[in-house]
Design goal:
Number of domains: 2
Bound molecules: uridine-5'-diphosphate
Order of helices and strands: EHHEHHEHEHEHEHHHH
Distance between the termini: 34 Å
Radius of gyration: 18 Å
Number of strands: 6
Strand order of the largest sheet: 4-3-5-6
CATH topology of the largest domain: Rossmann fold
CATH architecture of the largest domain: 3-Layer(aba) Sandwich
CATH superfamily of the largest domain: Response regulator
Number of helices: 11
Structural class: alpha/beta
Length: 212
């Protein structure tokens, strides 16, 4: 299960392997105001703005009574462990099978896969940013034996309190991206200022093709 926001859509336009990984997912959920606006312009409105940071904790709160084993893969060293502690507090039935940071070299992949498979994990959370997390899940999810693989972007950073979430009012107005831009302007200005413009330009072109 993956999420698609304007930035991810821009990346998918330039990366055929990422497009294939998204096409291969069982569920791709629309995340953010960019997708909502695109839905309106293309006369195919999205019903809900579903971002992983809100949806995943909610899903875990709604867990049925059986135990769910979760493995966390991604973020900088130390962050997944803090996020795991936070997840454990969400629901008593969540069992943390383990975690690993998301900056491992390629030759460590088999060892990580074996570790996840050994624990017979139900849910694998992959938080390595797009498209790395989606490509990794597309290639390796079957080998992990996990029933569900979720590509969750910056979720661990938020859960661990490493990156502050936008105030509710900002989220309600659909401008959480602006909050993130203020937090990390050096890293994110291209993504949001150029990226949003590029995304909307593509949507506009597509709408002219569809509705000449
Ligand atoms: N990340 C990672 N491995 C990498 C690159 C990124 O684990 O090779 C992590 C990064 O530390 C962060 C997450 O991936 O926790 C995604 O961050 P970003 O803010 O780009 O997330 P998004 O906007 O996709 O939610």
């Amino acid at each position: 299960m993956c999420f698609l926001n304007a930035h991810y859509a821009n990346q998918a336009c330039a990366n055929p392997a990422y497009r294939r990984a998204l096409a291969q997912a069982d569920l791709v959920l629309a995340d953010g105001s960019g997708l909502a606006l695109a839905g309106l312009i293309l006369k195919n409105p999205v019903r809900e703005n579903l971002n992983g940071t809100d949806l995943i904790p909610w899903l875990f709160k709604e867990l049925p009574s059986q135990r769910v084993k979760v493995y966390l893969l991604g973020a900088r060293p130390g962050v997944a462990e803090k996020a795991a502690r936070c997840l454990r507090g969400i629901h008593p039935k969540i069992e943390i099978a383990g975690w690993h940071h998301g900056y491992f070299p390629e030759d460590q992949t088999q060892e990580i896969l074996a570790r996840i498979a050994l624990h017979k994990v139900d849910v694998l959370l992959a938080a390595m940013g797009a498209p790395k997390q989606e490509l990794w899940l597309a290639e390796h999810l079957p080998e992990t034996g996990a029933g569900l693989g979720l590509a969750v972007g910056g979720l661990f950073d938020f859960l661990a309190g490493e990156v502050p979430r936008a105030p509710l009012a900002w989220r309600g107005l659909g401008i959480e991206w602006l909050w993130r831009l203020f937090q990390e302007p050096g890293r994110l200005w291209r993504r949001y200022l150029l990226g949003n413009f590029l995304f909307l330009h593509r949507v506009w072109r597509q709408s002219r093709e569809r509705f000449p």
